[in-house]
User: Fold this.
Amino acid sequence: MNFKVLKSDVNSSARTGILKTDHGEIQTPIFMPVGTHGAVKTVSPNELKTVKAQIILGNTYHLYLRPGIELINTAGGLHKFMNWNLPILTDSGGFQVFSLARLNKITNEGVEFQSHLDGSRHFLTPEKSMKIQQNLGADIIMAFDECPPSDADLSTINSAVNRTKIWIERCSQYLAANPSIYNWEQTMFPIVQGGIFPELRKQSAEDMIPFAKCGIAIGGLAVGEEKPAMFDTIEFMDSILPQDQPRYLMGVGTPSDLIQAVSRGVDMFDCVIPTRNARNGQFFTSFGKVNIRNEKYKFDFSPIDENCECEICINFTRAYIRHLFNIKEVLGLRLATIHNLHYYLNLMELMREHIQKGDFQKWSHQYLNNLNED
Assistant:
């Protein structure tokens, strides 16, 4: 896998690039739809390609519990199991162990936890996370890290930074001793922790950079901290992370978050917001959010967004889609999801175009001024 910066913006840290994997090339900056269980909810792989998804995300914790790595390995890996022939990134499972498991016990050895599904007990270590991800066969696999909550104190976050260093070393050792089980390359991204404390972020970055072969992730943000603190941290990361590798900001975010993070040097994103909000009847548009259940749309026969060229906006009206949500017809969820994913991926394409043109800063300010996210 290799990454090349194509164009850097002169007025910000925004840049375009191309990330080459064995399952295809990824144009950055890019947004990755979340397919936690091996499926992006309500949409098919072909529909994902229609909205120009270049890479999707799966999750180690969930796929380990169901359907299990033996089944996915027997199928030939996650790509074949779900009929997706483009790149895949898998999260390490660490965040879910800390946030979803009923009970967990964290030591330097690993994390003992109870499944949120049936209460069964499991022990996840750096080595086991790597083994699971090797069996899943993702092109990009994430190092096992400790992600403390945003309200954790300095001592707790410092402990997480130190433990993440211990774990990245073990991840690397395991991968060195256990080559990929499929005939394509898997590349591990280390994850920088440290909360919103610059000194801990710097320490964690110094710990992680030696293990970053072609990409590095910024973890531990968008977990409850104030937005200004998040953007300050991203800006600080831009000053200390390698310029020649893609930066992946985990779990972010809203359209304005993406634009502001790209201006601070981020290349890759994932978030459940476009798909989750779609299932709740919230559409993202060029002028802000549309909550389709609102009474005012009952006789509204205009498209969701007149500036949008997705098949939903071309073929369906607000009144019809509102009707689908009112009768709990699953088609409404599908149409909303396709539209929101189109919006997010089109937004990334717009950013790439304006970085290439050299007017990203002017365009982004104008776009953000027109965007009502309330």
